Amino acid sequence: MSIQNTGSCPLIFRLSLMDVLEGDIPRPRDKSPQRSSIKRRKGKAESGKSAKAEFDDNLLPNEELAIFGGNLKRSEDRSSFSFWNVDENMQLLVLERKTVEFGVRFQRVSEGKDSGAKESTKATPRVKKKANAKKNADKQKETNYCHVAIVKLTLGSSTLLDFIIVCSMS
C-alpha cells in the first residue's frame, strides 16, 4: 500500500492495530476462491508457500457476520501481524510531494514447538500418524480458520481509513 503527500509540508500518519480476532469463517462451497489461471515460470520461488494477497473493497456477508457478529474470538497474540516501513511508534513519515510504501505482514504462529509436543509425536505409531493426518486434512478442507486484524490509519486526530485484513489458513 502507499500514501502520497501532495502538500508542501511533511505529514506523519499513524497505524493502530485496533483488534485481532481468530476463528472459523464459514465459506459457501460455490463461492470458494478459485486458483488463478496465471501461468508461472518454474523456479526456486515456485516451491514457496506464500500466497498472493487479494484485495477487495467490501467484506463478504459471511465475513462481516463472523467479524462483527461475535463469532470470532479475540486473539491475545498480536505478534502474528506486523507492519513494515513504520517506526517503533507505528508512525509513517511522508515528506512533501513524496509517496511512501507501507505494508502489513502476517506470519502464522507455529504451534506445538514445545518439548512435550515432540515427545508425544515420537510415541505415536506411524500408522496412527497417517490416519490422524488424513482426518486433519479432511477437517481443514471443511473449515476456513482465519486471523483477522482491524487496523486504523490516522493523521493527527482524524481517522482517514479503517481496514480489515482477513488471513485464511486454509
TrEMBL record:
Region (Disordered): 24-56, 113-138
Biased composition (Basic and acidic residues): 24-33, 44-55
Domain of life: Eukaryota
Name this polypeptide is given: Uncharacterized protein LOC125386354
Organism: Bombus terrestris (Buff-tailed bumblebee)
